[in-house]
Amino acid sequence: MPRSQCRRFDLFSTVNVKSLMTNNITCSNGHLLYIQNQIILVTAFLGLSSAFLLVDNCPVSSPCTCSGSSGSYSYIRCGSKSLTNIPNIKQSSSHVNKLYLYFYSNKISVIQNNAFRNFSSINASEIDLQLYSNMIHSIESNAFNGIANTTTSLDLHNNNLTILPSAILNLFNLRTLNVLGNPLHSLDKLIHHQCQI
What we know:
The chain is mainly β and 197 residues long. Helices cover 6% and strands 24% of the residues.
């Protein structure tokens, strides 16, 4: 479609998606691109950038969803989905300042080694990890590989942890840890050792 026919859509415009599906639009000055059966909003005029704004860009599959803006923050929402483990993600070349990973209120009982390894491809500066209200009784020592340097907040409240696992020591930039509502009766030996030094 010639550039002169490229339309500018503001945030509240109603767009007939079905009619767009018959055209391939590439507009260098427009605000809507339609390429290879994907609608991509070019959001410079909205003051946003789009990493997970559209479902097609979400690095996790259904039933999880994604939202946010690539330059500032993004959410991967897998809470209350009856998951029994951390889902795999597709490789992503996105960068966000803050990534919110929501895995709360599921049926996860063990966080296995390398469960978050592929999340490093999102290249977040900071990660807020929500694992509360699961059935977690064990976190393996290398569970946080891939996000160990960027996780700043970890919420494990209302799980089944009886010891504070040593895997938490691998979260080098952790600032907030919530373990309320767990039947904790001792610290892991390694954590106990670190506290004694």
